[in-house]
Amino acid sequence: MKLTLPSSLCIISLFRILRITCTMAAVIVLSSCSTDSTFNKDIKDSRSADRWFQQGKERVQKRKAELTQTRYGAVEKAEKRRDKKDSKAKNIIFVLGDGMGVSTLTAARIFVGQQQGLLGEEFALSFENFPYTALIKTYSVDLQTPDSAGTMSALMTGVKTNEGIISLPDSVQRADCTSMPKNSLPTFIDLAKAKGKSTAMITTARVTHATPAVTYAHSVDRNWESDEAIPAQEQAIGCTDIASQFVNNESRSLDILLGGGRRHFLPKEEGGKRNDKRNLIKDWQQQGEYASTLAELETMVTKAEAENSSDNMKPWLGLFSNSHMGYAYQRPVEQPSLQQMTAAALKRLKKNKQGYTLIIEAGRIDHGHHDGTAYKALTETQELHETVAWLLTQVDTRETLIVVTADHSHTLTLAGYATRGNPILGDVVANDTKGYPKQSASLDLAGNSYTSLGYRDGPGAIDAEHHSEKDNAEKNGLAKDDPNYRQAALVPMDYETHGGEDVALYAIGPQARLFSGTLEQHWVFHALKYAM
Ligand SMILES: [Zn+2]
Fold first, then answer.
1. Which residues contact 255 (CB under 8 A, 6 or more apart)?
2. Less CB within 10 Å around the terminal CB: N or C of the chain?
3. Quick one: average pLDDT of 224-251?
4. Minimal CA–CA distance to 507: which of 409, 424, 426, 400?
5. Which of 170, 46, 152, 90 is closest to 525 using CA atoms?
6. What spacing in Å lies between the alpha carbon of 370 and ligand 1's midpoint?
């Protein structure tokens, strides 16, 4: 049965009413509730940031106990000694591929391997040989398939929250300033700063975009990147935009923030988005260093290198593009690469004898997928792979914990019985009955060839009303490996959606052993906290 929008809304409302009824009045037995009592209980229990936090903390203790006990229950001395020896990580590097699901990793592995002349499938991305691996459950308190704000908040505050919320508990209502709690959740960056570490967040997205924003801002709406996005009545209550939170907070925990997004720091009159006529970049330059190009970033690095310690260094802000930075495959030369930003940050971070916390986001894997263009997502993943490969030559993993993961997945799928070594962006060529590749591409029921990669939904969909995008691609003669080629999708949508399945996590360094099994996403924070 096809539901019309009002009737689906009605069912959702009914569901919410039932859920509330269930949680409030256990004595009233409603059959529709009793069939789903566990779910209702979980939702009720989860409406508490304290509970999420406590649950994560306890899981770390449990894991530690598991690691230090033999199956007979006796404490293993050698293990205990080892644990004491490498108990803390001086430095923590947390690398996040935005939207880098497991299918993206498989496709990127083949993509990079094939560029090196290999068949591809046997290649390993730089972090795939890390000794510890886990699967991460990514759901938010209110979403089965989550967004970046809720997921990064879980990773950075140790508490699961709702869609669109930046480092605040799930008790807040989206876009409702009156629901702001008195105390914000401290982020992992705040904890690192309190321990005397130097801190950095670098991204290829806008620095005010959901993922990076979580490390320094607290907002009831991820879209409040600058003031013009906040309704007047919400501003009157006192909610401030994400860009201004970074610049105005003199006790900020981040020493370095690099990425794109100048437009949220500039007034409309100067080509930005701000309504309040403030030029936040000028305000920033009163207190910190600023770079808008790779050359200016290099000048900042040279200046920092002349310093003996990090104590007296001013904080850095680098905004290298108006909105997101360019995709890696076509990034303008004046914009630094993810690796160049990482290298710049690392040179300064290493000045602190007490260590550092560095968060790196390949922010545009997600955008390539939303656009239905696998080439863009894979080249962005390749940039993350190369950055981690380079990092491994620069840091000592005996004192530096490196964790590589994703906030959520996408609907990319790799299928169709392509022969071994088939070009990952190409049409499926299957094997013959003897196991050798056929001479021509496989055909679907309508007689058309099809690619190995596809999406569950998005602009690449072919249907009677919405088929124009893919049709255009083919009419314009776009090759299957063209950056703008849209892989076939099933459900027609303007943007491809996130995927709700687990993502992978890879770890190396002190306490990397904590990461194994299938873990709740907010638990990653507690393991990082334990390791620091
Ligand atoms: Zn996304």
1. 198, 199, 200, 310, 313, 315, 316, 348, 349
2. N
3. 96
4. 400
5. 152
6. 7
Q: How far is CA 376 from CA 184, 387, 487, in A?
A: 36, 17, 12
Q: Is residue 471 classed as helix, strand or coil in its secondary structure? A: helix
pLDDT for the residue numbered 183: 83
Structure tokens at 509: 């360094």
Indicate if the pLDDT at residue 79 is higher than 80: no
**Residues in the 5 Å CB sphere of ion ligand 1:** 366
Evaluate the CA torsion angle 282, 283, 287, 290 in order and state its sign: negative
- The tokens of 315 are what? 């904080």
d(CA 518, CA 496): 26
Contact predicate 525/157, CB 8 Å: yes
User: Average pLDDT in the 78-98 region?
Assistant: 81
What gap in Å lies between CA 129 and CA 508, rounded to an integer?
9
For each of the domains in the chain, give its residue range(s) and CATH number, in order of start.
90-411+501-531 (3.40.720.10), 424-496 (no CATH)
Nearest to 243 by CA among 269, 277, 281, 211: 281
Q: Residue 419 in contact with residue 429, Cβ under 8 Å? A: yes
Q: Taking the CA atoms of 170, 174, 179 and 181 in sequence, report the sign of the dihedral they define.
A: positive
Rg (CA), the chain: 24
In the chain, the amino acid numbered 432 is D
- Say if strands 289-291 and 316-319 run parallel, antiparallel, or are unpaired: parallel
Q: From CA 238, how far away is CA 281, in angstroms rounded? A: 22
70 pLDDT band, cuts 50/70/90, is low
- Tokens 């919320």 — which residue? 165
Reported as a single tens digit per residue, the pLDDT across 504-529 is 999 999 999 999 999 999 999 999 99
Q: What is the pTM of this model?
A: 0.89
The tokens describing 91, both together, are: 């430095």
CA distance 265 to 283: 10
CB 114 within 8 A of CB 120: yes
- List the one residue out of 308, 337, 317, 314 whose CA is nearest residue 325: 337
Q: Is the pLDDT of residue 421 over 70?
A: yes
CA of 261 to the centre of ligand 1 (A): 17
Cα of 41 from ligand 1 centre, angstroms: 29
> Phi/psi at 406 (nearest 5 deg)?
-130, 160
State the pairing for strand pair 356-362/91-97. Answer: parallel
106: its two tokens: 């498989």
Q: Which residues carry out catalysis? A: 148
CA–centroid distance, residue 274 to ligand 1 (Å): 24
Burial environment of residue 128 by CB neighbours within 10 A (0 to 12, 13 to 18, 19 or more)? middle
